[in-house]
Design a protein that fits this description.
444 residues; mainly alpha; Cytochrome Bc1 Complex, Chain D, domain 2; two-stranded antiparallel ribbon; 35% helix; disordered N terminus
């Protein structure tokens, strides 16, 4: 009798969300580049490049530093500390002496899961890499017409830009020639210098020749080839579409616990989460203003210079001010802190923010920010969130109305968000190479 009751309850809770919440994604496999099977040699080359500090101006930081497998393909910090710092993840410091970090990276380091799916065509928090049929490769980017041809996809285009940022990988003017080119806006010069470095490493040259049909000698290697390889690695290594939720959608009704199913019903129903976080990867790829607290140095916007106008920086449209890209929620339990500036350190906190964004903004406690401290950097971190005018501006742009949920309902939604974690992503040690061709150390 008990089994029958439990079976009936399970069936009811399983079917109710499907019947009442049309936003549930279809139980289908998503469409990935290269049919989800990129060339293994290309993936291996991309892995080595991703972890190799040879792609930074001062040979002291790699892509993996701020997107490490051990930190959910991010870094565990609210805001990264890039070129000039030491360490990995939450242990990273701000460096010392002349080469130390000059400022924090203004935005949270986004996770890289599932970016090999074809639907991810708009990247970065503000969408500054996005489809454009009138641009090279059909992709609009900060490089404009200077973006070279031959990029495989938007993910490869995204990989072209961290190396051009002084704060992230290039370094500050006067530190190295790459940094000087980046500071002058010579992106082509940055890419050419880094390609020349790769051309001088025999272990890389042989791999590029093997992987790319148009590379016959070292001199043929371009940074476009490197970006394509890095994108292939990211797409292959961090495809995460076998979570309990995926298994549920494919017919395994017992893949979710009763409380996770309750959370799913709330997510796609009463709580309204699915209105923006719909689709196979819990994102509609839109841009929304939800009164996220602004911490850190900002992007230099506003009268104070401490604001980040988000999507408006790309479109020039004031109606896009404070809007940021709706992130995918796949593996979200692994990718704290949350928000474009990493303001919230727990899933519970960021879910509660969504219930009443304006109230949450005004009540924000910056003690939950996760950043290595240094007095000259700290003085900039909380200017925006402490400014009555800036908070009022952010609050006025909010698009998300309040919702009322009880604590047990919030807990159920958080449980459901944990069901979006692909178990294969819990142990990513396999994605870290033992060494890289440049011979530079993997760890600081």
């Amino acid at each position: 009798m008990v089994r029958k009751i439990l079976a009936a309850l399970l069936a009811a809770m399983t079917l109710t969300p499907v019947a009442q919440a049309g936003a549930l994604p279809a139980p289908r496999d998503s469409d990935f580049f290269d049919n989800g099977m990129p060339d293994p040699a290309k993936v291996e080359l991309g892995k080595q490049l991703f972890f190799d500090k040879v792609l930074s101006g001062s040979f002291n930081i790699a892509c993996a530093t701020c997107h490490h497998p051990f930190a959910g393909t991010s870094d565990g910090l609210s805001l990264p500390v890039g070129e000039g710092a030491n360490g990995t993840g939450v242990t990273r410091d701000t460096g010392v002496g002349y080469d130390a970090v000059q400022e924090r990276v203004p935005r949270n380091s986004p996770a890289l899961f599932n970016l090999g799916a074809r639907e991810f065509t708009t990247l970065f928090h503000d969408g500054r890499v996005e489809p454009d049929p009138h641009s090279p490769n059909g992709i609009a980017s900060p490089a404009g017409a200077a973006l070279p041809p031959g990029l495989d996809n938007a993910l490869a285009a995204q990989a072209m830009f961290p190396v051009t940022s002084g704060t992230e990988m290039a370094g500050q003017p006067g530190e190295n020639p790459v940094a000087d080119a980046a500071a002058s806006g010579d992106l082509i010069g940055v890419w050419a210098q880094l390609a020349e470095r790769l051309q001088g490493i025999d272990a890389y040259t042989s791999q590029f020749i093997t992987v790319f049909d148009d590379v016959h000698s070292a001199s043929d290697i371009t940074f476009v080839h490197a970006a394509n390889a890095i994108a292939a690695f990211e797409a292959a290594a961090w495809r995460a579409d076998d979570s309990p939720f995926d298994r549920f959608l494919r017919g395994r009704r017992a893949a979710l616990s009763l409380r996770q199913m309750h959370g799913m019903r709330l997510f796609y129903g009463k709580a309204g989460c699915g209105e923006c976080h719909g689709g196979p990867f819990q994102t509609d790829h839109s841009f929304r203003a939800i009164a996220m607290p602004q911490i850190g140095p900002g992007k230099g916007d506003g009268a104070s210079g401490y604001e980040d106008f988000g999507r408006e920086r790309v479109t020039g449209n004031p109606s896009d001010r404070y809007r940021f890209r709706v992130p995918s929620l796949r593996n979200v339990a692994l990718t704290a802190p949350y928000g474009h500036s990493g303001a919230y350190n727990t899933l519970d906190a960021v879910v509660r923010h969504h219930l009443d964004p304006v109230e949450s903004l005004y009540a924000y406690d910056y003690e939950q920010a996760v950043m290595p401290q240094r007095s000259d950097l700290d003085q900039h971190d909380y200017h925006a969130v402490s400014s009555a005018q800036i908070r009022a501006n952010i609050a006025a742009a909010n698009e998300l109305g309040p919702r009322s949920l009880r604590n047990p309902e919030i807990a159920a939604i958080v449980d459901f968000l944990h069901a979006l974690t692909d178990p294969a992503m819990l142990d990513l040690r396999r994605d870290v190479p033992p060494r890289v061709p440049s011979g530079l150390p993997l760890a600081d």
